[in-house]
Design brief:
elongated, 16 helices, about 475 residues, binds zinc ion, single chain, alpha+beta, 3-stranded antiparallel β-sheet
């Protein structure tokens, strides 16, 4: 028995990204989502004899942008190939893809090397109509050709990931990067981002690669992590029993957690690739590269670094912001509105409470809270003009109906009470008088006993007093 051997997972990802062009990859049909089936078709995307493909320039432009964002070499001259196979969702009997010379060569995103990025067309969509919902017992299957011919970029990584969690985290970075450059909606649930994972195990410390399996089309980040984890466990169990891992294509069912075999893995030669005779080679010239480069915004990974380095944000907060472009944009707009001297860490700490109030998927720029209002609110908190609890109430009111935080504080009487103000010292004295037992314990050195006294003052002031200020007054009045 080799139960003692520890195995290291080796994971590579293949990601299909639907490009957000107006028309399909090789014809003029518009892309459609949720339209009547089979209304966006023409002789070319239906594969009728005699029709000729024309490459979509916008898709090529997006392909170059993806390559540049992933630090890839861009091939000056690449080639489209026919990938031949039969399936009802593929009317031509082949898919136009790229084979030995893809548009983008080696690159890197974060800790993961990119093997290649190539352009291709999507297949049509098979819809299985059946009472049981199971593919093989469906009553009938129908084809919607609207999706057939949609431009795709396929991104293939090197096997540089070593856990399900790493895979999920890296895919999040990739999605954020693609979203930031605006080439795709990158929505896994809607299928505009689809991910397959190649998984193998090897003995810890070994350089060899074990036999890999391919998990197909996991349609959410959670299912990707669950599927990869389940496959790692399945392979480890086989290897520990001295059995072999078969090279095959697998399906993970998130409902049952079970992995089932779809087919034995096909090899490249099964597809009989040959150069697409109806398309000339794809030539990327200096002007195309320059146009793509000029359209790239600051990438999320660079923004994380800048937030940490220049603004002093803790790395987790920097990532939470930079990984969502709309949050990072709002955050920076708030810093700008606050002007010089605005505390970047304090402002960053107010973004999560804002997100909590507007909804986790909402864009703060679309809310009633302006960057200037948030900057003012944070400045008031730092100046102790309003305490944390009251400031959160003010934030809720801003989300509800907009406005100016100073005016809201004034109108609602939420301004912080200070020792110098009306009666805070008297309220503290009353709290001490009302609870002599607690006061005695505090005098005896038990600082925890201060809790009920502080609570009393907070109740009396409806939360407007500053906790630190109350504690200071209690100690002062108890002569400590
Ligand atoms: Zn068409």
């Amino acid at each position: 028995m080799s139960a003692e051997i520890e195995y290291e997972p080796v994971i590579g990802l293949e990601i299909h990204v639907q490009l957000k062009t107006r028309t399909k990859m090789f014809c003029g049909c518009e892309l459609s989502f949720g339209d009547q089936p089979n209304v966006h078709t023409c002789p070319r995307c239906l594969g009728l004899p005699g029709s000729l493909p024309v490459v979509n320039a916008q898709a090529v432009h997006y392909g170059i942008m993806i390559g540049l964002a992933l630090g890839c070499e861009i091939a000056p001259r690449s080639q489209f190939h026919r990938k031949n196979y039969f399936y009802p969702d593929l009317p031509k009997g082949y898919q136009i893809s790229q084979y030995d010379v893809p548009i983008c060569g080696p690159g890197r995103l974060g800790d993961v090397r990119i093997h290649r990025v190539h352009l291709e067309e999507d297949a049509a969509k098979l819809v299985h109509v059946g009472a049981s919902g199971r593919i093989h017992s469906a009553d009938r299957s129908v084809v919607d050709f609207n999706r057939g011919g949609t431009p795709l970029a396929e991104i293939v990584t090197e096997p540089d990931l070593h856990s399900a969690e790493d895979a999920r985290e890296w895919l999040t970075l990739l999605r954020t990067t693609l979203r930031a450059i605006g080439v795709s909606d990158v929505n896994m649930e809607e299928g505009s981002l689809r991910c397959d994972a190649n998984v193998s195990l090897r003995p810890q410390g070994s350089d060899m690669l074990g036999t890999k399996t391919e998990l197909k089309n996991m349609n959410s980040f959670r299912f990707l992590a669950q599927g990869v984890k389940a496959e790692i466990e399945r392979q480890a169990k086989l290897l520990r029993c001295g059995q072999e891992v078969m090279q095959e294509t697998l399906h993970f069912d998130p409902a049952s957690g079970r992995i089932t075999s779809l087919r034995s893995k096909e090899e490249a030669h099964d597809y009989r690739y040959f150069p697409e005779p109806d398309l000339v080679p794809l030539v990327v010239d200096a002007a195309m590269l320059e146009t793509a480069r000029a359209q790239l915004p600051e990438l999320p990974s660079a923004r994380v670094d800048r937030f940490e380095r220049d603004l002093g944000l803790p790395s987790e907060r920097a990532r939470d912001l930079a990984f969502r472009t709309e949050l990072a944009d709002f955050y920076e707009a708030t810093l700008a509105a606050g002007g010089p001297g605005t505390d970047p860490v304090a402002v960053a700490n107010w973004i999560p409470p804002l997100v909590e109030r507007i909804g986790s998927d909402a864009d703060p720029a679309q809310s009633r809270v302006t960057p200037a209002a948030l900057a003012d609110l944070v400045a008031m908190v730092l100046a102790k003009a309003v305490n944390q609890t009251a400031a959160r109430d003010v934030l809720s009111m801003l989300v509800e109906s907009g406005g100016d935080p100073a005016q809201i504080v004034e109108r609602e009487g939420l301004g912080a009470l200070h020792a110098a103000d009306s009666g805070l010292a008297e309220i503290v004295a009353a709290a001490i008088a009302a609870d002599p037992g607690a006061a005695e314990k505090v005098r005896g050195g038990n600082m925890k006993a201060m809790g009920p006294l502080v609570g009393h003052v907070m109740r009396e002031t409806k939360g407007r007093a500053d906790g630190g200020e109350i504690r200071r007054l209690i100690l002062e009045q108890l002569g400590i």
